[in-house]
């Protein structure tokens, strides 16, 4: 199956929207790497909080959190001042103690996939700061997200990172 098109990606649930402002530009006149990183990272964190059972109270109430273990960013197209950016955060895969997510950052103005940011986050006991399995309720939400997020499309993943089995 060929990799997803911009049109297919744009139909995925939208996690965040931004407009590239002058504060996002680097000396080359396009959006700086740090802003792709921030937009993608925040969208994946928001997805965890809003849909995957790990709200802001997760640490205080359950003593659990996720720590980022690995990331990979791939840039496919530029974004310049005034371009509208969409971020689609999807759950890709999970193990008992880790989740693989991707933020598909689209340039909605130009109709292009601009960046794919992948992340592996490890689920930890906040007291010991050691990996622990996801609670059953959270694991069920993650499994449902993996099944539902991209069932009909081939994600444009790097192959550079994955859940270790």
Automatic annotation (TrEMBL):
One Pfam family, short name: 4HBT_2
Signal sequence coordinates: none
CDD domains for the chain: 4HBT
Alphabetized GO MF terms: fatty acyl-CoA hydrolase activity
Name of the protein: Thioesterase
Originating species: Aeromicrobium piscarium
